[in-house]
Amino acid sequence: MSGTSPSLAGLVPAALRRRLADPRAPSFWRSLEEVAETTAFAAYLDQEFPQLAAGMASALDRRRFLRLAAASLVLGGLSGCGPEQPPEDIVPNIVDPVGGAEGDPSFFTSASLLGGYATGVLVEHRLGRPMKVEGNPDHPASLGATDLFAQAAILDLYDPDRAQAVTYAGRIRTWAAFISALDDKRAAWRAAKGKGLRVLTGAVTSPSFAAQMKALAAIYPEMDWHV
């Protein structure tokens, strides 16, 4: 801007030195006029470079920026401190999304458990039948990768030894019969505060499952949970 910028006449060298020595001041300047922030320089910017003038007018100092950033963090943290979210059911699609064709592969997110620790995976399925397990790129534990245990987990879904129906004493029973028998047990457990009820699980690291067990223990405080 030499030759067209406002004159430096009237600027006090001591003021310029103090401005340059300020540790909060920027490290780079376009000219000495910008250092001094004179009225003539502001008018020159407004006339020749209105975008730069607007930037100077709206510039934030370090202290104000930190205050605004801290306020944003506080407000963001408060938004996560609301009341506990109500429980929601996760169910599959009954009606396929628009644009899909029958037989096209679809994906749903799941988790592969190993030693009680979950790794996020994507499961490819066709017509509701799982076909392939891949890593979930959005999960911090896998980042899109997978291991042989997750790959082999698909075989568990087609294990012929999996229960195909509700059975009791070796005989197939209906789901309604199971619910009726469970209701009778619930009444007895409630009367005894859960005494006689035993729950057997593997290692639990899921917050959702742990919350369910906590809710169950609140209903039946005398129950036994074996891991």
Topology at a glance:
Blueprint: H1 13-21, H2 32-36, H3 39-48, H4 50-57, H5 62-79, E1 106-114, E2 117-126, E3 129-135, H6 148-156, E4 167-168, E5 171-172, H7 175-191, E6 198-200, H8 207-219, E7 224-226
Parallel strand pairs: 6-7
Antiparallel strand pairs: 1-2, 2-3, 4-5
Essential attributes:
3 domains; about 230 residues; alpha+beta; N-terminal domain of TfIIb; 7 strands; 3-stranded antiparallel β-sheet; two-stranded antiparallel sheet
The helical percent reads 25-40%
- Provide the spatial order of strands within the biggest beta sheet: 1-2-3
What percentage of the residues does DSSP assign to strands (E)?
Answer: 15-25%
Q: How many domains, in number, for the residues?
A: 3
Tell me the span between the first and last alpha carbons: 76 Å
Radius of gyration: 34 Å
Q: Which structural category do the helix and sheet elements fall into?
A: alpha+beta
Number of helical stretches of at least 4 residues: 8
Shape: elongated
Q: What's the oligomerization state?
A: single chain
The residue-averaged pLDDT reads: 75
Encode the helix/strand succession as letters: HHHHHEEEHEEHEHE
Describe the biggest sheet?
3 strands, antiparallel
Q: What is the tally of beta strands?
A: 7
Low-confidence stretches: 1-7
Structure description:
With 227 residues, this protein is of the alpha+beta class. Helix 3 packs across helix 4. It has 3 domains: 63 residues, no CATH class; 51 residues, N-terminal domain of TfIIb, CATH 2.20.25.90; 60 residues, no CATH class. The strands form 3 sheets. Strands 1-2-3 form a 3-stranded antiparallel β-sheet, covered by helices on one side. A hairpin with a 2-residue loop joins strand 1 and strand 2. The protein is built from 8 helices and 7 strands. The protein is elongated. The N terminus is likely disordered.
